[in-house]
Amino acid sequence: MRRLCRVGLAAVLVTALCVLTLVDLPPQLPEPPLDPPPTPGEPPETRSIVAYSWARRLALDYRNSKDCDGNGSSRMTSDGHSTKWLETIPGQLFLYSAHLDIRVAAYPSVRVIGVKRGLLQTSPLFCTIWYEEDGRMLSLTVDALISDIWLEEWGGTTTDGYIGILATCSFPSSKSIEPISIYVGPIPCYEDPSHSLVIPSIDKINPTIRRQFTLCIKGLDFEDDVSEKLIAFVELHRILGASFFHFYVFDVHANVLKVLSLYERSNVVRWHNLTLPGDLPNDKEGRRMLFEKDVWIKRRMELIPYNHCLYENLHKSEFVVPIDMDETIVPLRRKHWSQLLLDERIKLGKSFKDYASYAVRNAYFFPEIQKKNGSLKNGMQNVDYLDSIRTSIISPEGDSIKSFVSTKRTLTVHNHYALSTLNPAVKRTHHFNSKDVLKHHHRVCDEQHLDCDLLMEDVRVDNSALRYADELGARMKIALSNLEKIE
Ligand SMILES: *[C@@H]1O[C@H](CO)[C@@H](O)[C@H](O)[C@H]1NC(C)=O
Ligand SMILES: *[C@@H]1O[C@H](CO)[C@@H](O)[C@H](O)[C@H]1NC(C)=O
Ligand SMILES: *[C@@H]1O[C@H](CO)[C@@H](O)[C@H](O)[C@H]1NC(C)=O
């Protein structure tokens, strides 16, 4: 027992050191707390003990399910919901998507991503899971465990604000049931399966397609035709190691949709239309105005597609990488992400698995400081991903980082790193050495959040992205000619 405590104490100290550096800018977010977010229904004093034992935590979190009455005669009347939000408490609870999670074999569950508004007075919440047995549709009900996809310490929340949630609905592993659809709301044994979310079936989760890196790109919202930039983004990241991309779309130029559809056909991209829940605006102008005025709601709503992307890829990809279209993760000593990760795995040894995400530090490649490189041909000098002048200052650890997020060890994800971990003893994030890899950030300097004069005072040449110029040029040429063919 004493040894266990010592190990636990060490883990807490390391976590403390690790999370103290996780400061998010802009806007400035205070340090995340030392403990993972508490689970509702768990007395606070047990938290520190439970954190040492995952098995204990799982057992504490487990809720018995109960079979619902009804003869299970009715087949599903609808194939459920797809892109629209499913409202289960009027004005207060909106469900986005449902995913089977069999990472812990003894505790299978369905994870439901949604958004709550305000404090959700109606508690507890219940899950109703429909499944098929001998050709009949049956259902069971279980308490929902709700965790916020946000940390209270980050503030920006009001009593009627919208916050993302992850609802966990466990079902008995003894029954070999295959969940078909789910409802999470105030009513146990909910009776209307047409008002439910479809759970992608386990057959569709093909274990033979196991990718290493999948990119998650949050709600695109561009007035301009950025289709060529999008092609450069996809092709450069394919060279770096990404094999699949999830794009979420608010509003883009028709040509951008054409590019997404082209890549979708060759099974490189999946894209999703994105809307906001409840009474949030879904017209272009209204939404843009809201996000400009209220950066907190923008931040919180971004976490919905990122977590959807994580759960879509739980059993398909080793890592997901939430990233923006003005960013690239460029290794320095190596050319490919897989080599970069392998090096880190060797360097960290066994402790590699003690982290849920692997963070890359940020360096600004402001367009204001670039000198166009005459030796780049065929329009490649206009591809800003190849820019080679950056600020000498590298953003501190935790600031504007982007991460390779392990789908094995992450419970919820934030745009910079794993927000909560599946096993509470696993730490959120490990930082790569900035001599091994940098995240290149190609954006105009923002005086409101950055000291632009100071940053631009000292700049240096960084040619690391230029190594990809020839291959990128060749790939872009092919993609552009394919695009012309479908026009
Ligand atoms: C339930 O279904 C079984 C056959 O599947 C049938 O024998 C039984 O009468 C049904 N019960 C009710 C209440 O409908
Ligand atoms: C997104 O919405 C548009 C317009 O309603 C539609 O044409 C398109 O097929 C949708 N795309 C996806 C991937 O659902
Ligand atoms: C221009 O690009 C070439 C490779 O195409 C590279 O060798 C050279 O260093 C670059 N010059 C600058 C100033 O970045």
Commentary on this structure:
- With 487 residues, the protein is an alpha+beta fold.
- The protein has two domains: 62-204, no CATH class; 211-484, Spore Coat Polysaccharide Biosynthesis Protein SpsA, Chain A (Alpha-Beta Complex), CATH 3.90.550.
- Helices cover 25% and strands 28% of the residues.
- The protein contains ten helices and 24 strands.
- A seven-stranded mixed β-sheet has the order 13-12-11-14-19-16-22, sandwiched between helices.
- Helix 6 crosses helix 7.
- The longest helix has 19 residues, at 2-20.
- The radius of gyration is 23 Å and the shape is globular.
- The model is unreliable at 1-51 (pLDDT under 50).
- One 2-acetamido-2-deoxy-beta-D-glucopyranose binds next to loops.
What are the main properties of this structure?
487 residues; alpha+beta; Spore Coat Polysaccharide Biosynthesis Protein SpsA, Chain A; 2 domains; seven-stranded mixed beta sheet; five-stranded antiparallel beta sheet; 10 helices; disordered N terminus; binds 2-acetamido-2-deoxy-beta-D-glucopyranose
Helix segment tally:
10
Number of strands: 24
Q: Indicate the CATH architecture of the largest domain.
A: Alpha-Beta Complex
**What share of the residues lie within helices?**
10-25%
From the N-terminal CA to the C-terminal CA, the straight-line distance is 69 Å
The name of the CATH topology of the largest domain is Spore Coat Polysaccharide Biosynthesis Protein SpsA, Chain A
Bound molecules: 2-acetamido-2-deoxy-beta-D-glucopyranose
Mean pLDDT value: 85
* Overall number of structural domains: 2
Percent strand: 25-35%
Sheet with the most strands: spatial strand order:
13-12-11-14-19-16-22
Helix- and strand-based class? Answer: alpha+beta
